[in-house]
From TrEMBL, chain A:
Keyword presence, Cell cycle: no
Compositionally biased region (Basic and acidic residues): 556-569
Stated name of the protein: Enhancer of polycomb-like protein
Compositional bias ranges of the Polar residues kind: 586-598
TrEMBL record, chain B:
Its EC number(s): 2.3.1.48
Lineage: Eukaryota, Fungi, Dikarya, Ascomycota, Pezizomycotina
Domain of life: Eukaryota
Predominant subcellular localization, coarse grouping: nucleus
Protein name: Histone acetyltransferase ESA1
Amino acid sequence: MSTRGTAGRHVRQRKLNTKQPLHILREDALEDTYDDESQRNIPQVETGVEKGEEIEFHLQAVINAANAAALGAKSNQQSFIPTPDAVKAKGVKYEDFYPKAFSQPSTYIRFSSTVEDCIGVPYCMSESDVGFLGQLNDGKDVNGQPRKDKLSQCSEDTFEEVMNFFEESSSRLQPFANVDNAPILALEEMERSIDDSNSVEAHQWLKPIYQFWVLRKGSRPLMPTIKVRVLDTSSEADDADPYICFRRREVRQTRKTRGRDAQVVEKLKKLRLELEQARGLVQMVAQREQLNKEDLEISRKVFEERRKLKDVKVNKQIIGEKGEDEELLVNQKPAPKLKARQDTGQRPAMIRIRSGGDRAPENDLVQLSELQAEAEAKLQQQIESKKEQHKRWNDHWADATWRPITPPLESLEDPPRWAPLLFPDTAYPSPPPTLPSEGSRDEDVEMTDQSPIKEEDTSAGAAVADFEPEKVFHIPGAFPIDDDPRPSFKRDSAPACRLRYGRGGRCYLEARKKREYGAISAGVVSDSDSDDEMDDWHPPDAEKSFEWRVLASVRPRPEGMTGERRIHPSGDQASMAIGASGGQSRGLQQQASAGSAS
Amino acid sequence: MAPRTDHKDGGGGSDEREPEKGHATLATLRIGVKAMVQKDGEKRKAEILSMQTRKGRPTFYVHYDEFNKRLDEWIPAERLDLSQEVEWPLPEKSDTKNKQKTNQQSKNLQVPEPTKSQKRPRTVSTMSDSRDASATPMDLSEESKRSSRRPSMTGGKENRDPVLTIAPGDEFGGTPQPEDESLVDLVDTQEAAAAAKAAPPHLPYSREEEIEKLRTGGSMTQNQTEISRVRNLERIQMGTYEIEPWYFSPYPAEFADSDLVYICEFCLCYFGDTTQFGRHRKKCTLLHPPGNEIYRDDNVSFFEIDGRRQRTWCRNLCLLSKLFLDHKTLYYDVDPFLFYCMTERTEHGHHLIGYFSKEKESAEGYNVACILTLPQYQRKGFGKLLIQFSYELSKIEGKLGSPEKPLSDLGLLGYRAYWQEVIVDVLIERELEGTPMMSVEELGQALAMTTNDVLHTLQNLNMLRYSAKNHVVVLTEAAVAQREKQREKERVKGRRVIEGERLQWRPPVFTAAARTWNW
């Protein structure tokens, strides 16, 4: 870094706001003259290089050149930091070491194998190994004596495998051999740890190579390795040794609690269980494959035997029945297979064959429409069979319960109608027929087909007879005609009443109060004239209404109630159990029933 | 190096004692002596760091004053100019207590250094000698004597290197942090920098502090014990190249005896014997860095490698790169780092050009830990590609990045060149757009650079000026001309850039458990 001082500033500058946009100018656009000494200096900037190295000769040379260039000095001299050589090596047989084995995949490479996966046996033969191996393959042992074993040739790979085995097992069995000068392991000791991962050849060569390994073995591994401390032995000597590298970082301590311990134990148990299961699966797969293999071997043997038998037959000129010989060799295969699969006999096989025949080659293509038709037919069939079933169920069955099935709702065409309570001699617009849904909402109530009748005590009594139900309410032009023949949601504008038969033949006289017509369509700003009228209908909650119904039905019919007020959506409909109000209403009832009878 | 030039760098101010001078003979030369040495046709002062006898002749390992350590070398006695006076190592009494203690210790334990009449045909350096045998206090003393400032390992609390001059950016008292406060007083910054430079070095890292710092992250060391070591490998062969190592690297101690260490280009395994290497090449099936390719263009590919999953490969890479990175530390394992490796393709496979490592989670917001272009690929513009790539990653992460400090000399130059280029480009572009206004932070956002780095680059290029009572950014003729020249060169040689759209990468996510369990 430049050692020039920064003295010589006269004006204290404003602080620089790094968030504030700055003008980008060219040098010639600068208004100020360029005489300020401070502007001619490159300010000293933190380099990030260690202070001791910042002053190094070559770095300074480059930095000074760069500073000079920044200040506009023309210099063609390239300064650089010299580094030791990196040159093309002479006489390297690169092609031998690195064959042209790479072909680039079209997609980006994804790779997760480790170095250990890719380098094979880690042990690599050295010069002296090559010498020994040559000697060994010449039939001599380490001491140059003729070999006694009857092994032929040892490949380099096998040799390396064996050496690697020795190295690995000795470092595993004697991890501190280089510290405590443990005796070299005996061959027998190491043989104990040999397992399936070693090849058969390696097993055979253990002994001859062992002697050689003992000779070469020192305190350090034969392949030079870096010193790594697995355990964090933060001993001073360890720290000071520059060859020890890649120490483990200590694990950050997590807080230990009993709950956490239990959790961890659970996790481990589960893990263990899962691993066990996985192991079991793999084991079973292996077993299965083993059995498959045996099966194949046996099949082959059977075949061989049969072939032999055939040879015998040919030799002895035994002529069997026609096709017998063929069966002997070829046809045998499917037979046991069938037997194994289907013990019941050959029926499925037959079917299979026939279906194969049915499907004429030209008709192989399955059409979607066919499938659809098939599905349709199936569905239809199902429905039919269901029907049949139900019929069968219902056969000879008599329902002993009292009115077991809810009778069909009163037909929509003919609900009990409302008749005006007062004769419409005044110019009241007539109410439309009542909404059929009102009736249908009271599903527990049986509605008989009842034509509406007029209240008898009114002066309108005589007129009632003339009233055709439909026409009673229809005054053309009174209000807009609905296309719907039964405008159901029109509210009544005049008081109306109707007679309705409920369950058990009870007769209800229902009345509806008069209402100003204007209020009906007002909707939101309804100036409703009655207190009990609700602007909106809120359906009573199902449980409540059920309770009421129950209440109503348990009461003794004749005297139980003085008046049953129904909660009704419009609220303006008071329905009374007329039957409960004495003889007058009974008379009414009779009259009504007479009316209906006539 | 600071320790060797402390007396010049104002380390002790006026208290600094003049080193004792006198004539020396080959027999009286010892470690720590500074003598004039013939170097590239001129004489330079150099300190003897180690001595041994090779083929019956004394040779000396010397460090040249004010040269980077990578130029340290073994020289024959003939190149020493003993006709001039030499400087003897500083006597034990010193201005600071610590120094005194250290030096006393080394004196007490001092053993006569064998210089001549060595029996062995080729003696290894005292250093590797001591490593081969089990460590004894003697060996330590030799080391501490060699560099005479080595902190003693038994010094307890006093165990600190007294003359270390470390002042990383964050520890500058006066350096404002623009991230915290967007107001920066430039004059103060400069003065602070100057003050820090003039101030006596006062921030030595103790061994304990250093290790603690490394434990929680970071890959660069400022510890003298880690960085002042005699180079241990003579030469390495990698692919078709033979390379001279620059610094010490903890390859197996056996390799100190090898003339040539063979390094497999693909798995980076190391062999001291050509037969072994040949056998290894027969078996090794690796053809590219063992990770996922995340970038590919016509020239280069990038691979992302997780230090935890590819421990061996990453260790091998670190050992290799330690040969060329002075401040890199291998004290702790590679688990918390990701390695981004740049390769060149041939029919033989993906050849490693360079790499940078990156902490999986950097507390200080670094986007690069170590960065290296292998020497055989240096000065071809690959360094800039690596740097650019690191910023491309930061852009995807939506973070502002900066390289971990300390930078090496070459690292500094590489970064400065890159910063200059991209900043000038952005400014020119903004100027062409017709709205020539831009804040420092905006620049940083556009380039994924920290505000500090932008500020420093602008200052360093003399582009941040004060005009009409306002700060302005000046596109200086020099900077523009330099960029033009560069463009011209690119037109001739072909331009190498990282094309962001070819990068198939998402920031890897690590769970809290990974963090707890050593990544």
